[in-house]
Specification:
The chain has eleven helices and two strands, in the order H-H-H-E-H-H-H-H-H-E-H-H-H. It is mainly α. A two-stranded parallel ribbon has the order 1-2. The chain is globular.
Length: 179
């Protein structure tokens, strides 16, 4: 779930920590909000995986015990390639939703609109048009990562492996690893 999803859930149900990390809690609200116009933004799985890797290597939110647990798990793997190659072992111990497939969220509460982070500026205009709202003069980009050097982490083996792990996201949202 994205930061926008966390902010929305905090507004709707109050405790976004439990909501954003727990798919069961998320699905509980499916019926309650099925008449709302819902939307989400998805992200390229290779970029997302690398971003999560860096986020947890740095420690995530230091005050969050799940983030610290995930940092310790990631530290078990010597390299990015080691983590990708042993992802099922990592996943079995990981307790955060950051590495879930995006399909898992989308299929739990199917949105009326799916945008892409990579085409955010265009897709946000489409979204505001769909809900008949005036687009603000400025949309703040929070928590953006200026380091777009994720490609340097990957080799042929890790490109293929992350593609396999997130095959449903790749297929459904039409993503590729652009060299």
């Amino acid at each position: 779930m994205s930061v926008a999803g966390m902010l929305r859930s905090k507004h709707i149900i109050g405790d976004w920590e439990d909501f954003s990390h727990n798919l069961k809690v998320y699905s509980k609200y499916k019926l309650k909000y099925c008449n709302f116009f819902t939307f989400c933004f998805v992200r390229n799985p290779w970029v997302r995986f690398a971003s999560n890797y860096f986020y947890f290597k740095r420690g995530g939110r230091v005050s969050d015990h799940l983030d610290l647990h995930t940092k310790r798990l990631i530290e078990k793997y010597k390299t990015f390639e080691d983590l990708v190659g042993n992802f099922h072992e990592f996943e079995s111990e990981c307790k955060v939703c950051h590495f879930y497939t995006q399909i898992k969220w989308v299929d739990t509460l199917p949105p009326n609109f799916i945008g892409k982070i990579e085409s955010f500026d265009k897709d946000i205009v489409t979204l505001f048009d769909k809900v008949n709202l005036r687009l603000p003069d400025k949309i703040l980009h929070r928590n953006s990562n200026k380091n777009n050097d994720y490609k340097s982490l990957y080799n042929i083996k890790t490109i293929e492996r992350v593609g396999e792990l997130y095959k449903h996201d790749v297929d459904r949202f039409n993503y590729t690893f652009d060299l």
